[in-house]
Amino acid sequence: MLLPLPEKIAILRAMSFSYRQFFGISICCLLAGSSGCAVTKPYPQHSVYRSQSPFVIEQESHSGPDLYQPWNVNEFQVRSGEPGTPYRLVADTQPTVQKTPPPIGALQNLLTPKTTPVRAQASKPASRSMPILGIGKDVLNEFRPSNDRKWSQNHAVLQTAEFSGNIATIRNVRYSRYESAETYTTQYYDAAFNLDDIRTIDLVMVPFQGLDRLAHVESSFGFADGRHVGLSIEARYEEGEKYDPAAAGMRQFELIYVLADERDMIRLATDVNKNNVYIYRLNFEPHEVRAMFVDALQRANRLAAKPEFYHPLSNSCVTNLIAHINKGRPKAVPNGYRTFMPGLLDSYMYDLKLVAASATTFKETKEMAKVNWLVEQYGDLEYFSAGIRQKMY
Question: For the residues 207-222, what does the mean pLDDT come to?
């Protein structure tokens, strides 16, 4: 937990003039250039669900041209999540209504919670010795990234990928269902994708309220069968933490690659955090998108084996996403001032002719890219991903 303001001031006054001067300049730079590559609200504790079978396509359910998403999720069981230990079944909270898979073509039955949601309880962070500048981590671990901490529950499980020929299997795709910022449940499932079937990459922009030049930047990869998998690159929170630009600049958060169901990623922004969401189709060929997707999965694997610190200027959602895009098409997105202002990334890509748009101006393109009302309309339907993209077709 962060120290109260009076204690921070006391620490700063105890510093020498040169240290105070350096610290003040650093904070000003961070506040001016911090990107919002982190969810702005801390995640509560909740029940964690885990699929016992791989992601299975059972039937293509058509409700109109291109408006379908043929997937089905089988049995889930509850897991408890203690960092550094295997997940174990929690029998006393097993939701019996989910023992039977939902009817074919009726994923929406699963999307409606069948049990009383677990309400988050305020958690007390573990005691630590000698907090530094209000950051609150142990001195010995202050500047050493780790995957073994008491993580916020929505960040407790890392996503990784396995490759076998043209098949990429993502382990623990996250799917959280939110009733509010304090009440939600999370499921994890495994999803297998044929890399030959990858088709598209979309840029997902989530501007901060009242700060349009700052935004969280995400992406989503689309496949020929209608499925989409979202990628959100974030600062990883421990229990009780929330985003702080000064702490991020001093490497106080680890980096996490969240591979998530689009309902999780997008509805968290629209329904819970009340942000606008804009989705832009990018102009890349399937073989280029494939290279980006594989590069992102390999990066997630490396982070699972060797963690890194998040940094708002050098290791953030924007810097990593641009690196993956440039892996698919070298030098597609050159560094510029708009790459340091995440809220301007969509206009920058539009000027680079990387945004597929039928409109003649960026203003019109941005208006068409806003999906909030579509998310509200299609939020609980199995063809969610196709429904929110109607204006792209």
Answer: 91
